[in-house]
Amino acid sequence: MQNAALIAVYGIGRDSKGLVGKLAGAVSELGGNIVDLHQNVSHGLFSLFCLVDLAGRSTVSQLQAAVDGVAAETGLTLHVGSFEQERRSPERKSMLLVMLGPDRPGLIASMAQNLGRYGINIEASSTVARQGVFLMELLTDIVGCPLPEPNLRKTLADLMAGCGIRTMFQFEDVFNKKRRIIVFSFARTLLDSTALGEIMRQTGLASLHPASSVSEDAAAQQCASLLEGAPADLLERAAASLAPTVETIELLQELKTLGYRVAIATSGFSFFADHIKALVGAHYAWGVPLDVDADTRTVTGSLAVTEPVASQRARFVASVIATERVPQEDVVVLEDSADHYVEAPGLRFTCDIRFFLDAANRKSLSRDALLGILGSFGRLPGEGQKA
């Protein structure tokens, strides 16, 4: 292998099952050996790069013909080219760089330019941006960086903090990723604004005038009061009408694949938090406890806990960190109170609009009760005044 002449095969196309197997089979029939392979699927797009050692058993033209056959069969666009092999420096020093925060144009360019300025080489990268959340992992070689490790950490962290991005570092055992926690902490509703707006327009709730001075605690109590006497199973049916957006599912799948423990803290009521925890496969979830009469299974109109909502949420986050035994530096909290976010970052849910409109049309729900149910999913825009 030291002096092997390697051939590069690379390309892209629509993903389907068995693509790697078809290419590997064609190479094997020629007596070739795949010595390096990288493939990825993103948004249904399949991409591949591999190095083939023919070892004199076949010619490049024969490999080209075999690859052309695979391309014709699969619809992939594939190319074959010579490859000049370079050995990695034995002085290589790895750093895994993780960035997480609000998405915005130019983040990748900013980080790549800053790394280049300090002589840091990017060797592998993975990026996902969904519903206002940006996550990027970079495997880098920092052997050419003139800065000592503490200075490098502070410099990069400060640069990205200016963009609202939390930066985490791993210098040892970079291929065994550390456990990290992401907490989605929301004061506002997780309902998708389009669905919520349609319900409020159709039921006349959109004409409410907001009371901007109302606190989070007052909003939760007011919502509980609006629901006084409502059967708990009605609230559970309302929660069951929710579905996460495709982008929400994709983001959480990517986070869990990368080893993150996901926690959700919402100003919505706990029955809703428990439901979405199961719905999206989060590891932890917390919501404001709503008092329900155990005998009648109806809402009493009060909160089950008098402690301020912010304090309850903080205790929940602290308990997750303690349970997971993760250092604070590896915990990221995304809050919708940040100026970067118009809607809840990362997690959004659509709902069955017909469920709410049918209940309103049949008069089985008053406008107060309907507003209370919508508010049970988190604080509504302009919430604070009764219908």
Brief digest:
With 387 residues, this protein is an alpha+beta fold. The protein is 36% helix and 28% strand. It has 12 helices and 16 strands.
Major sheet: order of its strands?
2-3-1-4
DSSP strand tally: 16
Beta-sheet strand percentage?
25-35%
Q: Give the termini distance in whole angstroms.
A: 76 Å
Q: List low-pLDDT spans.
A: 383-387
Determine and state the CATH class of the largest domain: Alpha Beta
> Treating each run of at least 4 consecutive H or I residues as one helix, how many helices?
12
Which helices and strands occur, and which strands form pairs?
Blueprint: E1 6-14, H1 19-29, E2 33-42, E3 45-53, H2 60-74, E4 77-83, E5 94-102, H3 107-117, E6 121-130, E7 133-141, H4 149-161, E8 166-170, E9 180-186, H5 193-203, H6 216-226, H7 232-240, E10 242-244, H8 246-257, E11 260-269, H9 270-280, E12 284-288, E13 290-292, E14 299-303, H10 309-324, E15 331-335, E16 349-351, H11 353-361, H12 367-375
Helix pairs in contact: 1-2, 5-11, 6-12, 7-9
